[in-house]
Specification:
This protein is of the alpha+beta class. Helices cover about 25% and strands about 30% of the residues. The chain has helices at about 265-270, 275-285, 320-330, 345-365, 370-380, 400-415, 420-430, 440-450, 455-460, and strands at about 40, 55-70, 75-85, 90-95, 100-105, 110, 110-115, 120-125, 135-140, 145-150, 155-160, 165, 185-195, 200-205, 205-210, 220-230, 235-240, 240-245, 255-260, 295-300, 315, 340, 435.
Length: about 475
């Protein structure tokens, strides 16, 4: 994310059953005779969002089938979730906000369902054994909504003038599909979206097919993401877009872009730089981690910020500039491929992406990295709290996470030298490619690769409470 702009295959259906509040769905078969499973945890124990995510299983694949009407604002969806049980499960939870569950099944048999706030609990007819792969199918619908963060920015399913755009950091993805919505559980995706004729649906990964419905009044777009993705990085953009697809450039990365047709004439020059800046990023950070790159550009006001949605970052016209584009491209390595283990580790995304901006400014706009460091050092806002230990969830994406995170990287560069530092940038992305990593993982990696004890550096720049003397 760029700093917040202040302007900053379906199983047989179970009976059609409506879930209201915390009441159980009735009529679902249950048979737990002789079984010994226990319910999976209702949260992943994230330090800032303890109820976000769930325990007891690991999602391997999401197959989402969505039909959306921009005029009615109604979404109808089916989520087919393939997962592996980490324990004997008598029940397990999914995160889902607002939408109504109509039915659920596990391995083809109707499942019991209860709701309590954003917690959706499924109780299979028979316990799922530890180590088994199982398939849960949830049919749901309604009018998807948004969540308002502590800084009054919106996330979730955002309505636009001609459609919608889905943005999920840190938990907005639960507004449009049920899932294990914690960055520690990544999966592959198939996202199929049906929209009125004349509109397009854009998502992550590769477009597998684009087909009219039988009545010719709607079109279904099927997208596939073969590399693991955290739920907060999944997106769907629906609207009247100018679509471009280009062949791989020197870095071998195809480019797919979707720009709101009313915006396209004004942003075309920068859109055309996506291949160039992707190749520049490859030279800095190593091989591109996904099968394609690109952007989705919406109108001003359609969202409150830019976001690094995987392989296809989302911008509004007013947030779409070269430095921000570089920031979101860098996230494809740092944040999307190497994803924070918990939300406390998010400086590993934002600090790296901010440092990429500093590298860009030095190379393209004659602003030395050291000058960017000095500007950040002089800002009181960057000393409000340590970047690796935000005081509360409301400050998850505060200024220190971005700029003091980048300052930390500059201090590492000065401590280990340029050759080792840029080797670390590439090696870190390579070592944890398509995985999750923590702050401890990073500090240990740097010390191992450099052969230096950097404990004093971490104490001051990652964990220190106050501003040190000017270095």
């Amino acid at each position: 994310m760029y700093p917040r702009f202040a302007l900053r295959s379906l199983a047989p259906a179970a009976a059609a059953l409506i879930v209201l509040g915390g009441a159980p769905v009735t009529g679902a078969a249950e048979d737990h005779t002789g079984t010994h499973g226990t319910p999976g945890a209702a949260g992943a124990r994230d330090p800032y969002f303890p109820t976000l995510g769930n325990g007891g299983y690991d999602v391997r694949h999401y197959a989402l089938t969505i039909d959306y009407g921009p005029e009615s604002h109604v979404l109808t969806g089916t989520a087919e979730i393939t997962a592996r049980a980490g324990q004997d499960l008598s029940a397990f939870n999914l995160d889902l906000h607002g939408l109504t569950v109509r039915s659920a099944a596990v391995d083809g048999a109707p499942a019991g369902v209860t709701r309590a706030g954003d917690e959706l609990t499924l109780r299979p007819a028979r316990d799922v054994r530890r180590g088994d792969t199982f398939r849960a199918v949830v049919r749901y619908g309604g009018t998807p909504g948004t969540l308002t963060d502590s800084d009054d920015t919106r996330e979730g399913w955002l309505r636009t003038a001609d459609g919608a755009i889905a943005l999920g950091q840190p938990k907005g993805s639960m507004t449009w599909f049920p899932g294990n919505h914690h960055p520690g559980d990544k999966a592959t995706y198939d996202i199929s979206v049906t929209v009125p004729e004349g509109l397009s649906a854009v998502s992550n990964g590769e477009l597998r097919s684009q087909r009219p419905t039988a009545d010719g009044r709607r079109t279904t777009f099927a997208w596939h993401s073969a590399q693991p993705m955290a739920t907060y990085l999944a997106t769907v953009g629906i609207g009247a877009y100018e679509i471009t697809r280009s062949r791989p450039g020197a870095a071998g990365v195809p480019v797919h872009t979707a720009v709101d047709k009313t915006v396209a004439p004004r942003v075309g020059e920068l859109v055309n730089r996506v291949p160039e800046l992707t190749e520049w990023s490859v030279r800095k950070f190593g091989p591109y981690p996904f099968s394609s790159t690109g952007v989705i550009v919406e109108r001003e006001g359609d969202a409150d910020y830019a976001l690094e949605t995987q392989s296809r970052s989302v911008f509004t016209e007013d947030s779409f500039d070269a430095a921000t584009l570089v920031h979101e491209l860098a996230h494809q390595w740092y944040g999307d491929s190497v994803t924070p283990r918990t939300w406390r580790d998010v400086w590993l995304s934002e600090g790296f992406a901010t440092y990429a901006e500093w590298l860009y400014l030095e190379e393209f706009e004659d602003t030395p990295v050291r000058a960017s460091f000095e500007d950040a050092f002089d800002s009181e806002d960057n000393w409000a709290f340590p970047p690796a230990d935000q005081p509360e969830a409301g400050q998850l994406l505060g200024d220190p996470v971005y700029e003091r995170g980048a300052m930390t990287l500059q201090k590492v560069r000065e401590a280990v030298g340029d050759a080792t530092f840029f080797s670390v940038l590439r090696g870190w992305a390579r070592t944890h490619r398509h995985g999750n990593a923590s702050t401890h993982d990073f500090t240990a990696y740097v010390e191992r690769e450099s052969g230096k004890d950097l404990g004093a550096l971490w104490d001051v720049w990652l964990y220190g409470d106050g501003r040190p003397e000017r270095p």
